[in-house]
Design a protein that fits this description.
The structure holds two protein chains of two kinds. By secondary structure, chain A is mainly beta. Chain A is built from ten helices and 53 strands. In chain A, β46 and β47 form a beta hairpin. The radius of gyration of chain A is 32 Å and the shape is globular. The radius of gyration of chain B is 26 Å and the shape is globular. Classes of the chains: A mainly beta, B mainly alpha. Chains A and B meet through β23, β25, β26, β30 and β31 of A and α1, β1, α2, α3 and α5 of B.
Chain lengths: 1004, 451
């Protein structure tokens, strides 16, 4: 016994020591069908050690007995296995139907199942390959309650993202965009009134996922900036394992979604002659005499025989194109992972002369220095060049060409020089012939972090982010353009914005008694933004070929300025779950900013939410029909700090008269100015049936904003038009409904659909100081913000062709006087509709059959209206000589005619005044995007060492169904781009593009 | 180990959560606070300079007021060809109360008023008595100017010999620099406003020096007094004021009519002109609307064109004033506003001759010169044949020949009780409405009849 036993004993000891120390574990991970899963993440719990499965689903890893291995993979439920005696651990993973996915919340992540807030998560598959250069455009129709509207068809134009309605009047209505934990610069730096979307310089192909924090409880962790919602953008990162090379290339063509019908030469002559005769008598020869108007505009061509019939709209709205190419390399090992990508996008707009070219490069790196320390660096650099065109309200914008007479030739006889001598208005073609306008944007985004795992339960993370946005615009208009009187004009505008952000926070994770899971996050963050601007303009150029201000003979304007603002915040959050059934979360943020008066510099923003996973209860746990039922509710207070940097101070600024300096009072002081506070309550139900083949959410929310910062109009006799005060309140309420179904799931075919619907009821609750009216929009207590406030059109008097309006005077009993009058001054304005939809929806379908994939998204918006401010010129029964839309041919001509178009009277107002004649409902349903793809079978491509080769066709805005008779419900006036109150106005605005692209995905 | 961890955490937290509170105090770099802005003489002088700039703004004396007066007072001699609807409302005499041009005239006038009040409330910073007087004089001159045009535009015509209790505009004499001093004043009567104007001008006349570079001086105040008295029908005072300016001031008529206009600097006959330079941010509205496209005007080419009917007022084909026009591709434009960056003549010496002539004629006096001599002096300068005798109609016709398109049409019609076309001189339509935004913001205001 002795030696043998002793040897056995030694062996036993040795083996037990080995067991207590590291040993190699290997295994295979498969899905519920037995197919190997490639790239599954395997992590040793509470450490940073891990690995991934290979192409056969196999892995091996060094672990110690008793350690827990966590297997996770996108779209599948996570599995945990404790390391025991066996050296092999095989795992089967089941499809998770999105519920066990990990969702990014502010300063951390959470399992979707345990989330008690309202957060929408959109992955890169849903946004990649959509041929639109801005990232917001790719999200349209994919999230309930999130309205994303392109301003109009110009390629750099702003995109408005409104999450759960509009919660402010004077402060910014933009959500907070955060990339990899760092808030982004989101300021429009356009030198003209038409905005440039600041996020146009982000490459959507670098994005791994986007989370939209919609309710207060999720957004409150961003406290003072959370009222309009928060959009968290996470860029792609590498995974350990084989290096993956990914190439995506696509090219495509665009057309405008819609063109309108304008009068041709014959119709133009007919209508204008009639209008002239009606005003000045049939004998008047102003139009037809030699050298008269017709001779003039046709530049001597034979207008009587319709020699010239210019389709000006065709010069303005052209075919566009899109090219997008990107390549990325990612990979790594257990210690280091990396993601490097570069991209190129060139988009030619469907408006002549407008295009965008963007180069981007990104490098993301993560490195585990040791078990305890982890460090990372994400960098993105983009360089964009945009060729710009005039704002909608300038004569140089292409769309205003529709006002030109079809009798005017677009070019002179040489065919090259635009005809600017005999056109009614400035010929926009001269801008490209004799001028140019470029914006160059250079942007650097940097995030770096250091994470220190102090204890298994406690980690500390410090982050530093830097965003630098450098934009230069250069404009030149030569001696043949509108700047003829000064012999040319040039200007240059340079803006440098800088933002840096430091966050430090600790995260504490622990489990008590196996039943309680607690996570606590606490930390601080400091952010400072600065902006510098330089501008110079000059006139008097010796030659049109010298186009920079250096050649100007006189410098007519110049300015430079600088400003900055900052935020200091402290925050904390605790999340507790009991038995994985009862969930509760609370957070608190204390924010201070330089923007507010000394008296009210800081604000407290608390939030709380709770959830009950009913389906985990005994009475439902074993139900096969109900797989998930989670009831949740949240409450929170967020703020809005989107006001000017010095809004509470009384200010005098510099001015000049007679080349001598002056001082001018510019702002009235209000030291009591404070944050706008929004309180939001959300109640929701997450459900899942039939083993999560049917899942979804139902939510109801009420969002009330108090202490609205309003530029309250004050009597002009005080010398100021308004003062900024915290007065008034407004509310947004609505339902959101999401339904996701897996309709078919077999080995070869999967078909999923997803519907999201949202209602929005926006009302101004309190507005001391009464109505605020700006143009056609009104802010009035009891009504939706920016409702339309116009006189009501009543058609045409059949006896004489006069335009009629409803007087609508308010009677003593509250009813309206519905008699009609032809005297516009006797008619009262009334509220008729609003620019915000009351109901929105999106429908997405994803079909994968054999190697084909087919998906599409429909979006619809109902209840909004648009007012055509250009209607009085475009469809004004020939009050001016502007070309008209063909519907004006239905004008009243003889007594007894019943029509809605008044008699044509040149230079005499008859129905062109602001009224509901130019207000229309803009309900629409659009096939937003559709993709068909084919992936060449793996066994074929593997011969060429290609993991995936997919060919696809994709289209954007392919079909639009609407009764709206203007260009498009998404073509609005860009001069109002930044205005908060003036919404829903269109004025010679370009429609968006309908784009069709062909592309290739190659993964090596 | 526990203790070390604890200390590590504590120090990390302290380091990272440390206070950066001081950083939250950021001062604006392009602005001054009101206290600093009113704290020394040089800053007050800068504010005064800015008031001139406000007045020269295209909403007011850079073209806005003159355009309202000329289009509203027009009986077919000019046409509006532009795309803007607000001047079209002037021409059609069908103004809607939310007309932004009407609003801008009101708002800008009160900006001038408030800034003048700020200056007048802070005169104690001056140690130099001359500087103090100069400043007070300029502020009062500019304030009087603002109220004068407000009462001429927003109230029914002043009738000499009546009590003139028709509502005009609120008179506000206290400065507003913060929220607590904002008030909602009711409208004062036309009589009260004219008294305020005359008081301010009289003070200005006493305080201003005889010359002040291109800024307001004693003669500017006197010349404006002449204009005010003429509008009020007080011919005695009008005559005497005009006479003093003609006799004592250094101004002389230019040698030909064209030289009085389109000058980069002041001409010899500019008693006061608004300075315009190519550096001005605000467009010169006279040029924008009256000049052809080749000269900086808008696409109406020009927006305000001259009709054939106008030329009927010139009796002598050699009259330079009747030829001071040019053709654009389609229409006829006045040459008075051709140059984009020329100074804007505001009170010319020729107006003083006309006032003296008319007043002398009506009073049957010959102070300074006979009416015939005064008229002939102007006709001589314009190379027109002189008259052997003049009557009231001739004098009034000479006013049109000399001063057309300089913003007198409506004001002359009202004081002479002449109809504009077939619209009575005291019609509701010829008075600007109190701007709708003002009615909405100040419940103590009463709107003008007809709006």
């Amino acid at each position: 016994m002795e030696i043998k036993n002793y040897l056995f004993l030694v062996l036993f000891f040795i083996s037990s020591i080995l067991v207590a120390q590291e040993k190699q574990i290997s295994g295979t991970v498969v899905d519920e069908n037995g197919l190997p899963l490639i790239g599954v993440n395997i992590i040793v719990k509470n450490t940073s050690r891990g690995t991934q499965t290979d192409f056969d689903g196999k892995y091996d890893i060094s672990v110690s007995s008793g350690e827990v291995l966590v297997y996770s993979f996108v779209g599948f439920s996570a599995v945990e296995k404790t390391v025991g005696q066996s050296a092999t651990i095989d795992v089967t993973m089941n499809t998770a139907e999105n519920l066990d996915e990990v969702v990014v919340v502010g300063f951390g992540t959470q399992s979707k199942r345990k989330v008690t807030d309202n957060i929408v998560s959109i992955s890169s598959d849903e946004i990649n390959d959509i041929p639109i250069p801005s990232l917001q455009g790719a999200l349209t129709g994919k999230a309930a309650g999130v309205q994303i509207t392109q301003i109009n068809g110009k390629v750099e134009g702003g995109v408005k993202m409104r999450i759960r309605g509009v919660s402010t009047i004077s402060s910014s209505q933009e959500p907070l965009y955060v990339i990899d934990g760092m808030p982004l610069i989101n300021d429009n730096e356009s030198v003209s009134e038409a905005p440039i979307n600041p996020l146009i310089s982000l490459n959507p192909n670098d994005i791994a996922s986007i989370e939209i924090l919609k309710d207060a409880s999720s957004a409150a962790i961003y406290g003072a900036r959370g009222t309009n919602g928060v959009v968290l953008i996470t860029t792609k990162s590498g995974k350990s394992g084989k290096t993956k090379v990914s190439i995506n290339t696509s090219t495509g063509w665009s057309k405008p979604t819609n063109k309108l019908d304008w009068l041709n030469s014959a119709q133009y002559i007919e209508l204008l002659s009639e209008a002239n005769a009606n005003s000045y008598g049939p004998e008047d020869t102003y139009l037809t005499e030699e050298g008269g108007f017709f001779d003039f505009v046709s530049n001597g061509k034979d207008w009587r025989n319709l020699e010239v019939d210019t389709d000006w709209q065709d010069y303005a709205l052209v075919d566009g194109s899109v090219q997008d190419h990107s390549i990325s390399v990612s990979g790594g090992d257990e210690k280091t992972t990396f993601f490097v990508s570069s991209g190129y996008n060139r988009t030619e707009a469907i408006v002549r002369g407008n295009n965008l070219e963007r180069y981007s490069i990104r490098g993301n790196l993560d490195h585990k220095i040791s078990d305890k320390f982890r460090v990372g660096l994400n960098t993105g650099i983009t360089k964009s060049k945009i060729s710009r065109i005039g704002t909608d309200n300038s004569f140089s914008t292409p769309l205003q060409a529709v006002a030109q007479s079809p009798l005017s030739p677009a070019y002179l006889d040489d065919g090259v020089t635009p005809n600017n001598q005999t056109t009614i208005y400035y010929n926009f073609l001269m801008q490209e012939y004799n001028g140019n306008w470029d914006a160059n944007i250079f942007r650097v985004l940097l995030n770096t972090y250091l994470q220190y795992q102090i204890l298994p339960e406690l980690s500390f993370r410090t982050e530093f982010g830097y965003d630098n946005n450098n934009q230069t615009e250069e404009y030149f208009a030569g001696s043949l353009t509108e700047s003829v009187s000064t012999n040319g004009y040039a200007d240059a505008n340079a803006v440098q914005s800088d933002k840096y952000n430091i966050s430090n926070y600790i995260t504490y994770n622990t489990t008590y008694n196996e039943d309680y899971d607690l996570e606590v996050v606490a930390g601080m963050s400091f952010e400072e933004s600065s902006r510098k601007r330089q501008y110079v303009a000059g006139t008097g150029f010796p030659s049109d070929d010298l186009q920079t201000v250096e050649s100007a003979s006189e410098i007519t304007a110049g300015t430079s300025s600088r400003t900055k603002y900052n935020f200091l915040s402290y925050f904390g959050r605790a999340t507790l779950s009991y038995l994985d059934k009862y969930l509760i979360k609370g957070s608190l943020r204390y924010d201070g900013s330089s923007r507010f008066g000394v008296d009210n510099r800081y604000g407290f923003f608390p939030a709380a939410s709770a959830g009950w996973i009913i389906s985990e209860e005994d009475f439902l746990a074993n139900s096969s029909a109900v797989s998930l039922l989670k009831l949740r509710g949240s409450w929170g207070i967020t703020g809005n700090a989107g006001i000017g940097n010095f809004a509470s101070l009384g200010l005098f600024g510099g001015s000049s008269y007679n080349r001598i300096s002056g001082l001018k009072p510019t702002q009235l002081a209000n030291p009591e100015l404070k944050w706008e506070r929004t309180e939001q309550v959300d109640v929701g139900l997450d459900y899942g049936f039939a083993n999560n083949r049917i899942t979804g959410e139902i939510d109801y929310y009420v969002k009330t904003t108090n202490d609205l910062l309003l530029n309250e109009p004050i009597p002009g006799t005080s010398g100021f038009p308004n003062i900024t005060r915290n007065v008034g309140s407004l509310s947004n309420k609505g339902f959101e409904f999401v339904l996701n179904t897996t309709n078919v799931r077999t080995d070869d075919i999967t078909w999923k659909t997803s519907i999201n619907l949202a209602t929005l009821d926006n009302k101004v609750k309190d507005l001391p100081g009464g109505d605020i009216v700006v143009g056609r929009n009104i802010v009035r207590e009891g009504e939706t913000i920016s409702s339309f406030y116009v006189v009501e059109y009543a058609g045409v008097d059949p006896d004489n062709g006069d335009a009629l309006f409803y007087t609508n005077t308010l009677n003593a009993d509250g009813s309206r006087d519905r008699s009609t009058t032809s005297n516009y001054a006797d008619a009262t304005r009334v509220i008729k509709g609003s620019p915000y939809p009351e109901f929105m929806g999106g429908f997405t379908s994803n079909l994968n059959a054999f190697n084909f994939d087919f998906s599409f998204t429909f979006q619809g918006e109902f209840g909004a209206s648009l007012y055509n401010e250009g209607g009085k010129f475009q469809s004004g029964n020939m009050r001016y000589e502007d070309n008209q839309t063909v519907d004006q041919l239905a004008r009243w001509q003889n007594p007894g005619d019943i029509t809605n178009v008044p008699q044509a009277r040149l230079y005499s107002t008859n129905g062109q005044q602001a009224s509901t004649r130019y207000l229309e409902k803009s309900d629409f349903v659009r096939l937003r995007n559709m993709t068909i793809g084919y992936t060449i079978p793996l066994d074929v491509t593997k011969k060429f060492h290609v993991d995936r080769l997919r060919v696809y066709l994709t289209g954007l805005n392919l079909l639009t169904f609407t009764d709206y008779s203007g260009y498009d419900p998404e073509s609005t006036y860009d001069n109002n781009g930044d205005s908060n109150i003036q919404r829903g106005i269109t004025f010679y605005s370009a429609p968006p593009a309908k784009t069709f692209t062909v592309g290739l995905n190659i993964d090596l | 180990m526990r203790k070390l961890t604890y200390y590590t955490i504590l120090s990390l937290l302290t380091l990272s959560l440390g206070s950066c509170d001081d950083n939250l105090n950021i001062e604006p770099e392009q602005n001054l606070s009101p206290d600093v802005a009113t704290s020394n003489p040089s800053n007050i002088r800068n504010i005064v300079n800015n008031i001139y700039g406000e007045a020269r703004d295209n909403d007011s004396y850079g073209g806005g007021i003159a355009m309202a007066a000329d289009l509203l007072g027009d009986d077919g001699k000019i046409s509006w060809n532009g795309t803007y609807t607000q001047p079209a409302e002037y021409e059609e005499k069908a103004i809607i109360s939310d007309n932004v041009y009407v609003e801008d005239i009101w708002m800008n006038a009160y900006e001038i008023n408030n800034q003048a009040n700020i200056v007048l409330a802070n005169l104690d910073v001056f140690e130099d008595a001359d500087q103090r007087d100069l400043t007070e004089g300029e502020a009062k001159f500019l304030r009087a100017l603002a109220y004068f045009d407000l009462v001429r535009l927003y109230a029914k015509p002043y009738e000499a010999g009546q009590t003139n209790s028709q509502l005009a505009v609120p008179i506000v004499l206290e400065p507003v620099l913060d929220a607590t001093t904002v008030s909602k004043p009711p409208r004062n009567t036309a009589e009260e406003v004219y008294i305020q104007v005359l008081n301010d001008l009289s003070d200005a006349y006493n305080l201003l020096p005889e010359s002040n570079d291109v800024y307001a001086d004693k003669y500017t105040a006197r010349a404006l007094q002449a204009r005010v008295y003429l509008q009020m029908g007080d011919y005695i005072n009008a005559r005497d004021a005009a006479n003093e300016v003609i006799g004592d001031s250094p101004f002389t008529l230019t040698s030909d009519f064209a030289s009085a206009f389109n000058n980069d600097g002041n001409s010899t006959e500019d008693i006061f002109a608004w300075q315009v330079t190519s550096q001005d941010v605000s467009i010169n509205s006279f040029n924008e609307f009256w000049a052809g496209q080749d000269f900086g005007g808008r696409p109406g080419n020009p927006d305000i064109s001259i009709n054939e009917e106008h030329f009927a007022i010139y009796d002598d084909p050699n009259d330079e004033r009747g030829m001071f026009f040019y053709d654009t591709a389609r229409l006829i434009a006045t040459t008075k506003w051709q140059s984009q960056f020329a100074n804007i003549p505001f009170i010319r010496l020729s107006e003083m001759y006309l006032i003296r002539a008319e007043s002398n004629f009506r009073l049957d006096t010959e102070i300074g010169a006979t009416p015939k001599d005064d008229i002939n002096r102007l006709r001589d300068r314009a190379k027109a044949d002189t008259f052997d005798s003049v009557d009231l109609d001739t004098i009034l016709m000479e006013r049109q020949r000399e001063l057309s398109f300089e913003g007198i049409a409506l004001f002359d019609a009202k004081r002479l009780k002449r109809n504009v076309g077939d619209i009575p001189y005291n019609a509701n339509r010829l008075v600007l409405p109190v701007p709708l935004r003002e009615m909405d913001a100040n419940t103590n205001l009463e709107q003008n009849p007809g709006y």
